[in-house]
Design goal:
With about 190 residues, the chain is α+β, with helices and mostly antiparallel strands. The protein folds into two domains: about 30 residues; about 150 residues, FAS1 domain, CATH 2.30.180. Helices cover about 40% and strands about 25% of the residues. It contains eight helices and nine strands. The strands form two sheets. The chain has a seven-stranded mixed beta sheet with strand order 4-3-9-8-7-6-5. α3 packs across α7. It is globular and about 40 Å long. InterPro entries: Adhesion/Biosynth-related, FAS1_dom_sf, FAS1_domain. This is Fasciclin domain-containing protein. It holds the Pfam family Fasciclin.
Length: about 190
């Protein structure tokens, strides 16, 4: 290998290292929120972040089974109310296993899209809507039905069509295509 080739390779290697260092520096500058033991990066989309959360394995599997991965990787924006694995564990035994079967894809999709609001709504915006609504705010989901948001003390809650309430346990997990609010109960249309 001649000297010119070595210099070119060395130059390319230096540029690559400089670029990857710049990317790493950019990632560390982002304001992240820890969810399920993993940092959630605002520069990543909902799916890219969710797959790293140890607390959302069931949700990720359900999203895959429903064929919603591509949708939630799209530009959105979306507000996702993300139930934890513990929330799914509260469902009657065998419910999750039944829902992820191919023949139940339509029902699973309905349940999952009931956890998604169009647009990017911060907890502050939802809180303001609740205040403006004299203690509650109805919001239409992507599925088509409404959820009722309400507050108690410093906590934000959401009630489903069946009257079950979920507490927002981690709010404002910003994503490149929306925001996630972690909840402790699965909502049912």
């Amino acid at each position: 290998m001649n000297t010119k080739s070595k210099i070119t390779i060395l130059g390319i290697s230096f540029l690559f290292l400089a670029f990857s260092g710049e990317v790493n520096a950019q990632m560390t500058k982002e304001k992240t929120v820890m969810v399920g033991g993993a940092a959630m990066y605002p520069s990543k989309n909902i799916i890219e972040n969710a797959v790293n959360s140890k607390d959302h394995k069931t949700l990720v599997a359900a999203v895959k089974a429903a064929g919603l991965v591509e949708t939630l990787q799209g530009s959105g924006p979306f507000t996702v109310l993300a139930p934890t694995d513990a929330a799914f564990a509260k469902l009657p035994k065998g419910t999750v296993e039944t829902l992820v079967k191919p023949e139940n894809k339509e029902m699973l999709t309905q349940i999952l899209t009931y956890h998604v609001l169009p647009g990017k709504l911060s907890a502050k915006e939802i809180w303001a809507a609740v205040k403006a609504g004299n203690g509650k705010s109805m919001m239409k989901t992507v599925e088509g039905e409404e959820l009722t948001f309400w507050t108690k003390g410093k906590d934000l809650y959401v009630k489903d069509a069946k009257g079950n309430s979920a507490k927002v346990t981690i709010a404002d997990v910003n994503q490149s295509n929306g925001v996630i609010h972690v909840i402790d109960t699965v909502l049912m249309p």
